[in-house]
Amino acid sequence: xxxxxxxxxxxxxxxxxxxxxxxxxxxxxxxxxxxxxxxxxxxxxxxxxxxxxxxxxxxxxxxxxxxxxxxxxxxxxxxxxxxxxxxxxxxxxxxxxxxxxxxxxxxxxxxxxxxxxxxxxxxxxxxxxxxxxxxxxxxxxxxxxxxxxx
Length: 150
Description:
The chain has helices at residues 12-16, 19-34, 50-57, 67-81, 99-107, 115-129, 139-148; strands at residues 65-66, 88-90, 112-114, 136-137. It has 150 residues and is mainly alpha-helical.
């Protein structure tokens, strides 16, 4: 199974630890919504503690997030957001989501996306943030992505 489609079990404790991820996603959403002309997010929303978020989800301790570590964080986020536990995220559950996740749900006539669609959307964010193309995200790359509001 490729890292893009691997299933990662999520424990109750892992769901509780999604606060930093939610903060990062909130900033991504704010960047997309509040800075459509490319204005800096720093002018509208405080920058989340991205370094702490990377450290929390960096399972191998190399200071970066690989696709597997990122996917685990995304899956935790999905289950945290799925308030009614129906296995879908509706637009109401994506108030603070990444730009690609919002685009994915808006393209669906049902107005909701599955876990796989959510993961695929956030991997597009991963690829956009991975400016050096090494398959790893640094805190600096994430911060730059948030500031640009992509």
